[in-house]
Write the structure tokens for this entry.
Amino acid sequence: MKQYVMGNGAIALGALSAGVGLVAGYPGTPSSEIIETISKCPHEGVHLEWSVNEKAALEVAAAAAYSGARAMVTMKQMGLNVASDPLMSVAYIGVKGGLVIVSADDPGPISSQTEQDTRRYADFCRIPVFDPASPEEAYEMIRDAFEYSEKYSTPVLFRPTTRVCHAYAAIETPDNYAAAPYGGFERDPGKWVIFPRLSYINHGKIEKRNGEIAKDFSSYRFNTVEGAGTGKAVVASGVSYNYVRECLKGQEGIRLIRVATAFPFPEDFMLKALDGVKEVLCIEELSPYIEEQILKIAGKNHLDLRISGKLDGSVPHNGENGVELCSGILDRFLGIRTALEQADVSDAPALPVRPPVLCAGCPHRASFYAVKQAMKGQKAVFCGDIGCYTLGNAMPLDMVDTCLCMGAGITMAQGMSHMNKDTTAFAFVGDSTFFASGMTGVVNAVYNEADIILCVLDNSTTAMTGHQPHPGTGRNMMGNAVEKVSIEKVLEGIGVKKVLTVDPLKPDEAVRAVKECEQETGVRAIIFKSPCVAITKPAGKCAVDTAKCVNCKKCIREIGCPALITAGGRVTIDRNLCTGCGLCSHICPVHAIGGEQA
Amino acid sequence: MNKDILICGVGGQGTVLASRIIAAAAMDEGSPVHSAETIGMAQRGGSVTSHVRIGGEAYSPMISPGGADMLLAFEPGEAVRNLRYLKKDGTAVVNTTAVKPVTESLKDTGYDGSEMTAYLKQKCSCIFVDAEEVCRPFGSSKFFNIIMLGVAAGSGSLGLSRETLLKQIEKYVPAKFLDVNIRAFEAGTALAGRASGNPKGEE
């Protein structure tokens, strides 16, 4: 049947049509919809899970591949950092069933902390990588990835980027899916148990094999050459290939070389593609990986070739490419004009700035506000973490002093407490992040006598990435109701002596809890428990009593809720956004804001 | 037929559903379609765009600046932000009711979209829609995206038939809200007929 799907959906359906038997991952933009698509699609015999983090996901999947089943792991590029420990080792051990690790890169970055390049991991771990340019290709290529994985008994990386993940296209798919049959795990300690001697032997084998894969990739169907032109050629990969094609529409004969398998680099293919070429321009996103490979080839083969790209400043190192940027670069390189005529908007009025903000009624706003109120006038440091609550950094809340990576808030607060004795160190962590990589940090705090106040912002979901369930929600991706893992009990079990649970939408109680913890020392924890507004029915609406309101705008100044707006100079509440959380009514000094029933 | 439609607005306004329906309708009429959406952090009150590309000559998932046949803007400031994507002879369908970001409320700059509307008027051929006014009979802004879709359809420059669009609305909206969505779509179509390129639709 024909389906209109997102790139991530195409990856999911491609994997299902390849008979994948186990899929595991951790949510992260731009990769999250792969697992969500599988969960919504009728299939048989597939084990599907949101694992607790990417490392767990890869280990679960590796064992499936050891057992002969086809397995897929999904994550965003920084998740691959978390999974890099098992990745490096499983690259040495190899697999029996196909193991495909999807790591979605995010040039821009649009929703990420880094602009890292998964192709570098492929090179680092010495395993093949596939780089699709569109959803249609992703569907085909993920199936190739399983084939190659099994052909060479190696895990393979599959690297889409945001613009492929979030692009939509129509794809012809089967109506039903079933996991392929597999043999099951066969005991063979000499093969599956990693030891120095085995790593030494396999290292040699892997390098030899990679030479064979490079040859194999030289005839791979998605490594292509278009246009017979000589002299100048353009090399592109991933979505940049399609940006270049868009720019070159209507231009005749320009040689365009596309590399879909950056590692092991298809050297024979490239040598042939560069025949008769004197100048080559490399257009790729993130790192100049292909450009460096061409430099190597040129050196090795004494090619008389001028190579431009990121390394000579022709293409920016940072940010995503896009048609407009590619058009300018191509025009300079080829001496043509590809840009479309555009309206001159240089005289446009100043545009409103729209940084992402916490939603109206978001309980995180109330939690941050409670801590801010309780700590007014005292020295405190607020270590934030990854999730919607990173947005607590925005004015007027301004409650995030550090944010580094998943789970880091808890451990960084400890370092702060050891080195800044006059400051109360707070760590803010969401429920999903707590399970992903927060728990071990709490063990560290208890063991090493840190002096921190841990604030778990428990909204019963993984909100930022699209409301995925996690161990605390009591629901898993097999559609089953399961025992909820209690954050309270986990903390008590670790040995946190003071664990308070409060509703942040009861501001007085919340402030009292923070003050109570502030009076004590050691590891103290407050669980601010209130569900995400995007997954619950609003409690009602708030409204401003214009007779009472003195228009002091304290509500707007203090909490910056998007539902609080001014119209004709007067404070008013946008009924379409308000959820009736009531935080503003608590702040109003003249009690002019009241609730209405929904 | 090759048609590039850029839908823009603010996270939460329902641009994604509008883009989904246009894409599905084009597919239903037998055209190749591609689209691209803003997903992730920007959805939290940020600027969002959906690029819908109908026809076989679309390679990039996003429309090139100067390439959009239609700009379907759910917010006047966002219309100006994305104006450079519009073709010289393209049409802009623009909601004149501003969505004020928190940053504006804090600084109280008085942003209300009127400056944007005035600017757009000089720059391109526009059909203006006052969201507040058109949503009033529906008692909610929930159906605003379908109204905008109706205006786009009624303008004649979407290149898709009313029937195919309605067929897809039927598929995409919850059954219990189908009637009101159809009425919203019709209200939009009628408004496009009346509109003559000024904010209040006056002759």
Observations:
- The domain at 3-195 of chain B is CATH 3.40.920.10 (Pyruvate-ferredoxin Oxidoreductase; domain 3).
